[in-house]
Every structure is written in C-alpha cells, then in structure tokens.
Design goal:
Order of helices and strands: HHHHHHHHHHHHHHEEEHHHHHHHHH
Number of domains: 3
Number of strands: 3
Strand order of the largest sheet: 1-3-2
Distance between the termini: 40 Å
Largest sheet: 3 strands, mixed
Length: about 600
C-alpha cells in the first residue's frame, strides 16, 4: 500500500486545510489570472494558455498545500499548515470550477499531441473533483488511519531541517497546531449534525493514538525528533535556543490542543459516531461509493461486476493454494494448513530487529535482479524503517513513503513491527517486492524523475495504476528468484488472495449489506493472515471505501496487457522494454495505459 500524503489530486486545486496572512493575496492573483485566461483567446495561443494554466496550478497548489510542497521539495509555506476552514474549503471548490471554465475555453486541437494527453488528463481530474464536491469528505478529517494525531508528526519528521530557518519553520508549525485541531473539530461537529461520521468501531484506537503523542518529556515527542540532532551548520548556542522554543511550543500549544481533541473524541465524537459501517448508509452514500469506485479503479465497472470478479479470483487462487499445500507435503486440510501457518513458531521473529533485518536482506537480494526486468532504473535510493510506535497498532502491515529528488529525500518502506506474532516470515518476500522494488519505490521514483512531463503527472497518480503495479510486482518474484520454498510461494498467493478478497468484502460491506463480522469471517476463511491483521484491514476498507478495489483491478489489466504483448510480438517481446513502456509515462488511467501499450506493440511490429 502506498501511503504518503495522498496525492490523488492535491493536484491543481485540491481540498484540504491554513492559508495564513501574506498568502491570500498571492493566491487571489493566481486565481484571477486563471479566470483571465478564459478570455485571452485572441492574445495567446491555446498552447500558451494551457501551459500557463499548468504553471499557475503548480503555484496555487504549493501555496494552498504547504504539506504537499514539503513532500515534493518546494520551500513555500513551510512555516504553516493548509487552511481547512470552511471558508477556505469552499473557496477552493469555486476555484476548481474556474479552472474548468478556462480549460473548456482552450481548443484541444490547438495543442501538440503530447499536450492533448496532458489536457485530457488534467481536465478529467478537475471534472472528477467537481463531481466529488457533492460528497462532503471534509466532514471526515479523522479516522484510525490518519488525521492530526498522526499526520502532524509524520510531516514534521519528513521536513529534514538543514538550517536555522528550517528549524524556525518547524517551531512555527508547532505553534500553529491548535488551528488545525480546531478546524478538524469544527468539521466533525458538522458531520455529526449531518449524520456523517466514521463507524464508531473503527475509532476505538484513536484516543490511544492521541495519548501516544502526549508525552511527559517533550524531548521524547515524535514531533520534536528534529531537535534531538542538529546539523553542523547550527551552532551549540542556537541549538539550545531552538530546542527550548520547540519545547515551549509543544508544551504551550501542541499538547493542550491534542488534549482538547482527545476530550472531544472520547466525550462527544465517538459516542455520537454511527453504528453502521457501509458508505451506502450515509446521506447520498450509494452515489458516493459509486464515485469512489470509479475514481479509484479508473473504470466504469459497477460494484456488482467487481464483486463477481473478486469471487472468481478467490476461486482461482484458492485452487493454486491447494496445489502448493499438496506439493509442500503437508498432511491436512486447507483450514489446518492456515492454522499451521498462523501458529508455528518457525514462521515468526522474536525481535523487531530480526524482522527488520530480514526485510532488508530481501530488499538487497531484489535489487540486482531488477536488471533482468527493466532497462531503466531510478537513481533515488530507499530505506526500510519501522512504522512509528504512535500509529503501529492500527496501521497496516507496511506502507511506502515516496522520495523526491527535488527535496533530497530517499524513499522509505515502513514495516510494522507491532505484535511480532502477527508478522509471519512467509509473507515478507511478497510484501517487500510490493512496497519497495520492483513495486512502489521503483514506479514512483521513475515517475518523480521523468523529464519533459508536467508537474501534475510526476506526483501522486491513479490508485489502480500505482497499486495495480505494486500487486503485479509481487508476481515478478518468480522471475527474480523468490518464492523458492512452498511457504513463501503460499505467502505470495496469500497476498494475491488478500487483494481478491478485497473486491468481495469492500463491495460486500459498502454496497451489498455485509456486516463487519461477515467480512472478517470471509477473509479468515480464505487467507492465511492473522486475525489482528485481518481486523486492521477490514477496518481500513470501512473508512477508505473503494480504495482497496484498485489493486486487483489494476493488476489484472497489467497482466492482460503483458499477455497481449507477448502473444502479438512472439520472439520480439522484450520484458524489459515492456516494463519501461508501462512505467515510462507515469501513472495513468487504465484505459490510457492500454492504448499506450497497444500503440507500442504496433510500433514494434512496424519496425520489423
């Protein structure tokens, strides 16, 4: 799972959170110019107008979303948070409509072939954002997967200060933390009035997540980690002063704000949260879920069709699992084999250090195998680190945080070391290939390093492509020399089964009326994952409706296109060239990926 700051379109004019004094005028100047461009048909060419819209969109996004700016290495706004006040959110919604007016005024035929694709992608994104304005996602700023109780520390840890100005920016952000807490509470209160909250069952760990941030010694806070080790450019006297300012900001501003949020969550929000789990149970929820499904999968598949695909994939993978069990020599039923995998001590590490060491060993063995499968590899390195302790209990097995050449930041694969008896060794190869290489690190780093590509195509992406690539990457383990023992092979199939199960349980819960326990039971019956992991996963699907559908849908399309290219090209098929073609234009909707691969196949044929 790619976690990061979700960039689904923090793109041109995305939703989120503080524009403080000094930036509003700059933002208004940008939006005024975007509106002016709609009437500049005689003075500028269509190409000039489109390229100016793209440039203005970048500046607008950096000014409105300084957390995103930090992620990609832009220095603007690093002393503040995004403004998530009601006024700011509504203004951004109007701004997106202005962008669409300007894009509609640009004649597509007046653009180059490459810019026509860029135009289509940008316009479709903005249209989808506007369509989504009817669904008040801003009412749901906190769940067990994210919110101020996790995101503040995560962002501050990512900032990597190099000088006094950078440290002052962190202190400024600490001092401004009460604003984003108050804004979150305001939105949750509106959600309570509208009957739009997360299910209460999924919020059970949020109070403890907040308590994990409320430490007796501020120097031990994950928010102040940057003040424990300074670069040589900051002298000792300055270090002490900065540390004292940070401690004062934490004690005087951050801690009281978090305590306020904790009281609100325990006394008001969780008691008032809904007892149902389906997105379809929310006001306009069925349409909201359909919108999520379309956006996440980049297809027109209905929830019913996706559910049937899931059932068929579960049946197919189950048959393969039975063959692996047979080949392993295990004497017993499928259910007994699952119990064996979940309980035998040989499959579990006794220390967190041992678990991380094996993850790093797998990654190091994967690195040299990439040359066999890819002609182009990124220069951005990656590391493997544990999921922060303040979030680990409710966090998934692993996630990836992308690197950035511009920010001078490596990519990081976060492995969950909580409850070692739920982290079986037989799943580690598939998980590493998904999160690191050839999965998310490879794909997202190549995308970050693309030349001659507009900024909005170098960041974030389409979930079906990004996660579909991650799941497809797991299957490349066979060609890379992994899964040589039956348990790791079963682990790979378990991970594929996991993603097939998602198609069944996500649509089951949100569209077909399944209960949470029904989804947990179905998962447990068909996969070898531990019950703790399964519960965390099911609760993730509940609060991120539709997101989990993207993995299998994307993987099936990539495998379909590989089979097509292999059949069409025969001896001329080159797996390295195929993979370079898939990744070489960044993340794309699946329909455009298919068109690109078919055009590439035709070109290879013609070159014969």
């Amino acid at each position: 799972m790619k976690k990061t700051l979700t960039l689904s379109l923090l793109l041109l004019l995305a939703v989120s959170q503080p524009v403080f004094a000094g930036y509003q005028e700059d933002i208004k100047a940008l939006t005024d110019r975007i509106q002016e461009l709609a009437g500049d048909e005689t003075e500028l060419t269509d190409s000039e107008r489109f390229n100016e819209v793209v440039t203005l969109g970048y500046d607008y996004t950096m000014l409105n979303h300084p957390e995103f700016a930090a992620y990609i290495g832009d220095s603007r706004g690093q002393d503040r948070w995004t403004d998530n006040s009601e006024e700011a959110v509504k203004q951004r919604e109007m701004d997106r409509k202005s962008v669409l007016v300007t894009l509609n005024s640009i004649k597509r035929d007046g653009l180059s072939a490459s810019d026509q694709i860029n135009y289509d992608l940008l316009k479709a994104r903005v249209e989808q954002d506007i369509e989504g304005q009817q669904f008040p996602g801003e009412y749901l700023p906190i769940n067990q997967m994210g919110g101020p109780q996790q995101n503040i520390a995560r962002l501050l840890a990512m900032m990597q200060p190099k000088n006094i100005r950078d440290y002052n920016n962190i202190i400024s952000r600490l001092e401004k933390t009460p604003a984003i807490i108050d804004q979150s509470i305001a939105w949750m209160r509106k959600g309570m009035q509208a009957g739009i909250t997360p299910p209460a069952i999924t919020l059970r760990d949020v109070p403890q997540q907040l308590r994990n941030q409320l430490v007796d010694n501020p120097e031990k806070s994950p928010m102040l980690v940057a003040f424990n080790k300074f670069p040589a450019s900051v002298d000792a006297v300055q270090q002490e002063s900065l540390k004292m300012q940070a401690i004062a900001a934490y004690s005087g501003r951050v801690a009281p704000a978090l305590e306020k949020l904790l009281v609100f969550m325990e006394n008001e929000y969780i008691p008032a949260a809904r007892t149902t789990i389906a997105m379809g149970d929310l006001p306009n929820g069925k349409a909201w879920y359909a919108h999520n499904v379309k956006r996440r999968t980049t297809t027109d598949l209905t929830p019913e069709q996706i559910h049937e695909i899931g059932l068929a994939e579960v049946k197919r993978i189950h048959a393969e699992m039975e063959e692996v069990i047979k080949d392993s020599g295990f004497k017993g039923s499928f259910d007994e084999f699952l119990v064996f995998l979940r309980t035998d001590p040989q499959f579990y590490h006794k220390t967190k250090q041992g678990l991380l060491a094996e993850y790093r060993d797998i990654a190091k063995r994967a690195d040299p195998e990439l040359m066999k499968l890819f002609g182009h590899l990124p220069r951005t390195p990656y590391g493997i680190v544990p999921v922060p302790t303040y979030a680990e209990k409710s966090q998934t097995t692993a996630y990836y945080q992308g690197g950035s050449v511009k920010a001078g930041r490596a990519g990081y694969y976060y492995a969950n070391t909580y409850a070692l008896d739920t982290r079986p060794r037989w799943e580690m190869e598939a998980l590493t290939l998904h999160e690191a290489v050839p999965g998310h690190h490879l794909q997202l780093s190549i995308q970050d390093e693309l030349e001659d590509m507009p900024w909005f195509r170098k960041v974030g992406g389409y979930t079906a492509f990004v996660e579909g690539w991650g799941l497809y990457s797991e299957s490349l383990g066979v060609e890379m020399g992994f899964y040589t023992d039956p348990y790791s092979k079963f682990g790979q199939l378990t991970y594929e089964m996991w993603r097939a199960i998602r198609l069944v349980v996500d649509t089951g819960m949100h569209h077909l009326g399944w209960s949470r326990q029904q989804a947990i039971d179905y998962f447990m019956q068909n996969a070898g994952k531990q019950e703790h992991d399964v519960i965390v996963e099911i609760d993730r699907y509940i609060v991120w409706p539709g997101q989990a559908l993207a993995y299998k849908i994307g993987e099936l399309k990539i495998k379909e296109l590989r089979a097509y290219a292999t059949t069409e090209l025969g001896d001329k098929f080159d797996i390295r060239a195929f993979h370079d073609e898939v990744l070489g234009k960044g993340a794309l909707p699946l329909s455009l990926l298919e068109a690109n691969i078919k055009a590439w196949v035709a070109g290879v044929k013609k070159a014969d």
